[in-house]
Specification:
The complex is a heterodimer of chains A (about 350) and B (about 220). By secondary structure, chain A is α/β, with parallel strands linked by helices. Chain A has 12 helices and 15 strands. Chain B is of the alpha/beta class. The N and C termini of chain B lie far apart (about 35 Å). Classes of the chains: A alpha/beta (about 350), B alpha/beta (about 220).
């Protein structure tokens, strides 16, 4: 298989193009800007592809909404304060069940924070809208997954009609390595317009009666749970004879993989659980493994957003400890040390 | 032509919307047309007309219809909004859509207030006008949206008409859709009655619109 030397941003653009995306709307913001600039380079090579650098993230988001209503696969990429502004459009996508795709390049916060890396946009990606919108959120750990989950974000957004987020960060987007992307066999979903010449539809996102909205939300919840059965993804490393389990997502999971092997060499009976879909969360698997564990150890570059997800999804009480380093990267040795010290 | 109107009795908006639909029918464009609705009283039009319609968010109908039009170039894209959605919360997107000459038609129903929320001061509230948020009368001159946008785009068709003058409204909408067909931006501001929030009735209402014309000059904005 032929390998190419690509950055994370180039991988995202490749995935969007091969997923059938025809347009991107974006506003420059570090560390997501290169997705826009690389996409623009693609539009110069392929005249079927379109882009617009808009006046702000709000316009980007709503232009994506308009494009997908017209039946065009479209996406945006943003980060940090841009992710905050993007919630306006994403909330409309939540309410109207639009196949909105956003690549979110996490950076540090609150406010303008830092510009390259964090895992602090988990809550915003999943629950950033008003009301109780439901979104599909992928957290890739490496460039191969960045490609795969971007493809799947488009496919599942259009198949199930929920907004989809690829939640990544500047470290992964700026990583450049030899990668083979040819092995993936995914058939693209065909985009279907919400309204066109053949239809005569009146679509709303505001309801006269409370009961109407309740019914809409309950139906969405049913659809989301149906989708969950099909789309939930996770990785569980070491299942037999374990007493505790490290949980990590995104690029931190890469460091955690190495840490688990070192710990096991030292005699620790530890497993590693990596949720690839943060929403819907792999709840059943978490509870299945919890049966044989006395504790979990959450590792993340935030003050506990992943830990909160774990707590929300656990049916039984388990001791949860962890290594929480808001806005900074986490190395293998730190995980090993923190795990040992926590005992 | 239309379903049951959810607008207040005497509201100017159903007149604008039904005129809009008549013009689309005359042009044979009802199937190709898509009516995007801002939030505010505009949202009440969601199922008024037998054509494709969808609600968006407050201030966001312009970028949404821009995205639709760019995805489907043979559609007739209409962004229907109030003065608050157009000239306050949505102004940034409106200015840029005009500047980029996006081939969409923006219709602004200017009734000088945030009517859906009960009559607060809006960008087009007139000097001295009493509203829920200017109880002693507004101190500011109103925003003249069409005149502002004119300076950004020489190719656009931009007009202001009174909602009481249907032939002028028909003419402006026709020219706006012609402009869209030619690939240009268009904006029609309509002075739309709001007897509920103006607290007027009957002839007083028509007089109110006549007075508005002294502040908001009607005709094509050149």
């Amino acid at each position: 298989m032929e390998k190419e030397f690509l950055t994370g941003s180039e991988v995202v653009v490749r995935a969007c193009k091969e997923a059938g995306a025809r347009s991107m709307y974006g506003y420059p913001i570090t560390p997501g800007t290169e997705i826009l600039s690389h996409w623009i380079l693609e539009t110069e090579k392929n005249k079927d592809l379109k882009y617009l650098q808009t006046e702000d993230e709000i316009a980007s988001g709503f232009a994506v909404c308009g494009a997908v209503i017209a039946g065009e696969k479209s996406f945006t990429a943003t980060a940090g304060p841009g992710t905050v502004l993007m919630q306006d459009a994403m909330s409309m996508a939540d309410g109207m069940r639009l196949p909105f795709v956003a690549i979110i390049a996490q950076r540090g916060g609150p406010s303008s924070g830092t510009v390259i890396y964090s895992q602090q946009e988990v809550n915003l990606a999943i629950h950033g809208g008003n009301g109780e919108g439901m979104r599909l959120v992928y957290s890739p750990s490496n460039l191969e997954e960045l490609y795969t989950y971007t493809r799947k974000a488009f496919n599942n957004a259009w198949k199930y009609r929920f907004p989809a987020v690829v939640l990544t960060d500047g470290f992964l987007l700026k990583t450049k390595q030899n990668i083979s992307l040819n092995s993936l066999n995914i058939t693209n979903e065909t985009p279907v317009a919400l309204v066109d010449e053949q239809s005569q539809k009146n679509i709303r996102n505001i309801y006269t009666f409370e009961e109407e909205l309740r019914e809409v939300l309950e139906n969405s919840k049913k659809d989301f749970l149906t989708m969950a059965k099909e789309v939930i993804e996770y990785e569980l490393i070491h299942e037999e004879g374990v007493e505790s389990c490290i949980i990590a997502h995104g690029i931190v999971a890469g460091a955690a993989k190495e840490a688990v092997e070192i710990l096991r060499e030292q005699g620790e009976k530890v497993a590693l659980f990596i949720p690839k879909t943060l929403s819907p969360f792999p709840q059943n698997k978490l509870n299945e493994i919890a049966k044989n564990m006395h504790s979990f150890f959450v590792v993340e570059s935030s003050m506990g957003q992943l830990q909160d997800l774990v707590k929300q999804n656990l049916f039984e009480a388990r001791e949860i400890k962890g290594l929480f380093k808001p806005a900074v990267g986490i190395e293998t040795e730190e995980i090993v040390e923190a795990f040992i010290q926590s005992k | 032509m239309s379903k049951y109107s959810k607008f207040c009795p005497g509201c100017g908006q159903p007149i604008v919307l039904q005129t809009l639909y008549r013009i689309l029918q005359k042009r044979g464009d009802t199937a190709k047309a898509v009516l995007g609705l801002d939030i505010g009283c505009s949202l009440l039009a969601w199922d008024l007309l037998p054509m494709n319609t969808f609600q968006t968010h407050h201030g966001r109908v312009t970028p949404t219809m821009m995205g639709y039009k760019r995805a489907k170039k043979d559609s007739v894209c209409i962004a229907y909004t109030g003065d608050g959605g157009a000239y306050a919360i949505g102004l940034q997107s409106l200015l840029w859509a005009a500047k980029r000459n996006e081939p969409i038609t923006v219709i602004v129903a200017n009734n000088t207030v945030y009517a859906m929320t009960g009559g607060q001061a809006s960008p087009t509230t007139m000097k001295g006008q009493k509203t829920g948020t200017t109880p002693s009368g507004s101190n500011n001159d109103p925003m003249l949206g069409p005149e502002l946008i004119r300076s950004l785009n020489p190719k656009a068709f931009i007009a202001r008409v009174s909602g009481a003058e249907i032939p002028a409204l028909e003419d402006a909408l026709t020219k706006a859709f012609d402009a869209q067909k030619q690939g240009n931006f268009s904006l029609v501001e309509v002075l739309a009655f709001c007897p509920t929030n103006w607290k007027v009735q009957g002839k007083e209402m028509l007089q109110y619109v006549e007075n508005m014309k002294t502040v908001f000059p009607v005709g094509e904005v050149r």
